[in-house]
Amino acid sequence: MKAPIFNAQMSHRSSGGLQVVECLVDPCEGSRSRAEMAMDKEDTFTIQLVLAGKEVFTIDNNQYLLSAGDIVVWNSMFPVRYEITERLQKISATMPLQRLRSWLPDSWYASQGSLPSHLLSMQYFRLFFESVSREFLSGNITPGECLIEAMIAMLLTTEYRRKSIARASDESRKAQAIITFLEKNLSNPDLSPKNLAAQQNCSVRYVHKAFESRSLTAEKYIIEQRLLRCLRDLGNPKMAQRSITEIAFAWGFKSSSHFSRCFKDKFGVSPRDYRRSVNGGRILEPDPKLS
């Protein structure tokens, strides 16, 4: 039996950080996994316009049914899956996510989902996006940097801005969920940004983003929270029969020497000296300059 014939055509051009692709492809499916996300050298933002056909597009756990005229936007911080159910023609423009961040500093990370195609503003944007993308592909428009700014500016005149701001509230809850999960699992010695990303079904970069307001990386936040809990237990008389190593290991540290270095760097005193000072009736307060 002969294998079914699969047809696909593609036009592609890149310049100044902008990559535009137009393709015509038979029914198929694919995905962008976390392993592929980890290989990214730069976070990106993509606008996709469906010209013909049908596609089921999934971003994170949100599914969108796309057909002719629909626009979907997504960023590379989340896994995506697609299933083309009817021969599809589409145009996609991919650009650095940082460019969108400069336009939407408080809600850029919510830049994903389909947009309401029935609105007049979206109809104008669709005409603009299709025409300039094709001109770019043909080489009639050269400066990709300028076209990126024009595309984002036009996009923000549509319903997209309001939806992004609304989604930002939902995304802030997702970021808090990451932190809550972390704090409940500090005793797990294998806890890491990679584990958190897998548990929350997002990229490692997104995990780090959840800690931006705390001015700490995810790794440093994990260590800090573990140290605070070790400090509490070392000063607790009910824990006097437990060794320092036992307490450190109970909160996820894998090495007693690493724990001691981190503790002294944070609080300005060794774990042993801190415990002695507490048992002697004088609780040694950590230096606030080191907190």
Question: What is the topological layout?
Answer:
Layout: E1 8-15, E2 18-25, E3 28-32, H1 34-38, E4 44-59, E5 62-67, E6 71-75, E7 80-96, H2 97-103, E8 113-115, H3 120-138, H4 144-155, H5 160-184, H6 193-200, H7 204-209, H8 218-234, H9 244-250, H10 256-267, H11 271-279
Antiparallel strand pairs: 1-2, 2-7, 3-7, 4-5, 4-6, 4-7, 6-8
Envelope shape: elongated
Taking the alpha carbons of the first and last residues, their distance comes to: 70 Å
Strand content: 15-25%
Helix segment tally:
11
Low-confidence stretches: 281-291
Helix content: 40-55%
Say how many strands there are: 8
What is Rg? 25 Å
Q: What is the oligomer described by this structure?
A: single chain
Average pLDDT metric: 84
Highlighted features:
single chain; 291 residues; alpha+beta; eight-stranded antiparallel sheet; 11 helices; 8 strands; elongated; disordered C terminus
Task: Characterize this entry briefly.
This protein is of the alpha+beta class and 291 residues long. It has eleven helices and eight strands. 29% of the residues are buried.
